[in-house]
């Protein structure tokens, strides 16, 4: 759960819209549907996508709705005027997988762009997609568009649109909260919901497999999201809202077993729908080798091993004075909070990551990049802000603000759902990075706001973190509208030594570039998410030099 939610490249082929859509026009004229009810008609209903890039392969995706199992052909072509076919095969669109088709295209060349498409038995052809393989050997740069937290009811997906039109990235990363599981009218409320962005059936909370599938169909009908998937291979991992708010291995804050059934059944349904509708493999975590430049480690931090989150409201229940609350929180800080048995990654994934960090660095790779979900940087509430909030706050906001202020006084973090809630697990990861002498870069989403941290452990610099703002889910500007965002950001930076910069009010995405000497995040901020097509009006660039493990401007 976000801090601000209520409880509940060179060689790139030309970007020519007519060219990329030519395959569909030559077939049955089918293009991806606009945002509309989930279609029952036969045909390619939700565009194309690719993901899981490797040096010699990529995973291709489409959806072909039909009355029964249907064999679909696919082709990968050179990204030039000749369109020479270099790989092809067949895959079955089946109701068992909601008619979603995924196929591995093997035998490709490293570091190249390709076009791909699917063909149905009646001769109709999908949209033409574009994908890219990972480079091999010396690599001068790699550019990634990084997204998280896209709640369709709050606005348009202008961040996806801007990144697609920019045509300057080698791949896209999605760090989670690709959609939200809430019912219509919950988050956002009906009053907050932007006209034209109302959820379609089901408008209830997602619990069953059919529910999750239908929500993907709604989101994937958005043309800006389709276009992003069409143009870039995506590396993606779920956060909590792809299943339920504040999920962990054994449950979720937004799951009630008495009315919604067994958590394991709901979790399996959410995972199955995700793997059907997204261009992802079935591997819970994976590594991607970008030549000698970087190893990207896609982590799973939610459903495999995460221990249940602590909750300040529960911890403080029954206290009658600030002094009693501080005493209880201090005892918690020195006891259960530091329990070394509490996990985020779990022993298996932790061992895989530690070995991968060491292998990457010893093999001469420059950057070790964590593609993960929640903030690693240490973040406490700023009492200079929370002690002066207005009296007319909603009750849930006031409770969270008061709890954060008390936690800060007890030297505890603001958000127990982030890595801050699992200090022993974070220490294990940082110790592995230090042992490997890694050039660690953490990429995180979840909070809806933009952050930049220097990461440290035991007095040693570990690396840096770029925390991305949301696509359209609101941040502090919605949570604490009575306080100027600049005041919130300034107070948080002053309070937290690791936090070098943050933005508390703007939506958008990160443009992250890796070179042999520098890792840079350009935070791109949109003028609006309530106006369709609104563009980027401001940017902020921060970077780190290889080996420095600290941030600098520019």
TrEMBL record:
Residues 144-522 form the PhoD-like phosphatase metallophosphatase domain. InterPro entries: Metallo-depent_PP-like, PhoD-like_MPP, PhoD-like_sf, PhoD_N, Phospholipid_Metab_Enz, TAT_signal. Coiled coil: none annotated. This is Alkaline phosphatase D family protein. PROSITE patterns: TAT. It comes from Qipengyuania aquimaris. Pfam families: PhoD, PhoD_N. Residues 46-133 form the Phospholipase D N-terminal domain.
